[in-house]
Specification:
Layout (H helix, E strand, L loop, with lengths): L1 E7 L13 E12 L3 E11 L8 E15 L2 E10 L3 E8 L2 E2 L2 E5 L4 E7 L8 E10 L3 E2 L3 E9 L7 E7 L2 E6 L10 E9 L10 H22 L1
Parallel strand pairs: 2-13
Antiparallel strand pairs: 1-4, 2-3, 3-10, 4-5, 4-9, 6-7, 6-10, 8-9, 11-12, 12-15, 14-15
């Protein structure tokens, strides 16, 4: 399962281009995955020029991609992309609340948050956006999510903290920064079983082990 979580910063200001005007000095994304995922974005915006700018409307884009399932087990054949249900959406900075909303499209969802307060020359603005979302792909033994992060402005420092009520058994994507107009992908998989941290996806291990077992049993039956 891949969950597309694309951060697209649409900065509405007096400049004709974002590059070199506004940057994300730090972004920390905290995710806790149970039946759904709770996401918290802690964003530090920085004005890089000697004039005030107004960030305006920014967005987070989400897309859920689920693998085909055989009973309760994910199999690496086929996938379905769809919009994501969002609940308990908030955008704020300290005691100041910002307008936030979301919109469903055919196969993705966009979360909007609006900042109409100017950032002073070379100044910073800390913003938090958090919500619950149906991003987790569940199986009987494993559950997983994948988060792509990128946008129209540089993310100078990226921290990602993914946790769950199940044990982490796979993590891919050691990313600490993302240049503008690029996307970084982070994938996490959790298991109800006490697996160690694996070098590959757990459901691949499951099906690979099952196929090997079937092949061994078939070989033993042929030799009888």
């Amino acid at each position: 399962m891949r969950v597309w979580l694309i951060v697209v910063m649409l900065i509405l200001c007096t400049q004709t281009a974002f590059g070199g005007v506004l940057e994300i000095e730090e972004m920390k994304i905290s995710v806790f995955a149970t039946d759904k995922a709770h996401l918290k974005y802690e964003i530090k915006l920085r004005n890089t020029i000697d004039k005030p700018i107004v960030p305006g409307i920014s967005e987070l884009r989400l897309q859920k991609v689920e693998n085909t399932k055989l009973l309760f087990f994910s199999i690496p054949i086929g996938e379905q992309r769809k919009a994501v249900e969002v609940e308990n959406l908030r955008a704020y900075s300290g005691n100041l609340n910002f307008k936030a909303s979301f919109e469903h499209f055919e196969d993705y969802t966009t979360v909007y948050y609006e900042i109409w307060y100017p950032i002073e020359p070379y100044g910073e603005k800390n913003v938090i956006v958090e919500f619950d979302a149906d991003l987790v792909d569940h199986g009987l033994i494993f559950k997983s999510l994948t988060i792509p992060v990128g946008g129209d402005v540089d993310i100078k420092k990226l921290d990602l903290d993914i946790n769950s009520d199940w044990k982490l058994c796979y993590l891919e994507g050691d990313v600490t920064s993302v240049p503008s107009n690029h996307i970084a992908f982070i994938t996490a998989e959790f298991s109800i079983l006490p697996f160690p941290l694996l070098p590959f996806r757990g459901y691949v291990l499951f099906w690979g082990s099952l196929l090997i077992l079937i092949a061994i049993l078939a070989l033993l039956l042929v030799r009888k």
